Amino acid sequence: MAEPYAPMPDDWQRALAVVAHPDDLEYGPACAVAAWTAAGREVVYVMVTRGQAGMDTMEPGDAARVREQEELRAAALVGVEVVEFLDHQDGVVEYGLPLRRDIAAAIRRHRPDILVTLNFHERWRGGDWNSPDHRHVGRALLDAAGDAGNRWIFPELAEDGLEPWKGVRYAAVGGSPFADHAVDVTGFLDHGVAALEAHRSYLDYLGPDHPMADARAFLEKKVRTFGERFGGTPAIAFELIGV
């Protein structure tokens, strides 16, 4: 039998969530974000792309504009006031120094206690292969946590006024097959559902038969499943990694 999830630490004040695409956080982690912001914590979102390659029925420029606006609405619904877009190209995000530099700059800019991201492992819990954008962004984020604290890595950031930041304690990885901690989201499912529903253009593109098209059913099942390893309490699970 699987080990119960440990409660995620709550002795922090500021989180920076960095993911590849608009909507990545809304497939579960946003429920936890709603709980955090309601408790007075600050969460900032950084999207590495604008999701412009997500729908082959919409030109990339149009998709970027639509999905940016949907993400801004989704973030506001869970108490997030600041959303940044790094403008890397959706679908072809490359792990490398430019990505590490951009994320390190965001960490120095916002000076978080913790980082939040999406599963960057090769596979999802069910065994499906993960996308290269997710894999590259998550790994770059973990490396950028160290870069952000080292004055001699990307020294141009300090020259631009972004002083090193060594205050990041760990990264919380949503959707990870190696999740070991969880957040009680009692009372915040509706916030998460509303945030996911804000991505209506993408949900409609998926079609009515897609398991994620029904936002409420999808998230209800998720928080119930995680809750089975968290004392029966509705929960969202994360893998915690020290950085």
Automatic annotation (TrEMBL):
Keywords: Zinc. GO terms for biological process: glycoside metabolic process. It comes from the Bacteria. It holds the Pfam family PIG-L. The keyword Repressor does not apply. Gene3D superfamilies: LmbE-like. GO terms for molecular function: hydrolase activity, acting on carbon-nitrogen (but not peptide) bonds, in linear amides. The keyword Zinc applies. This is GlcNAc-PI de-N-acetylase. It comes from Streptomyces scopuliridis RB72.
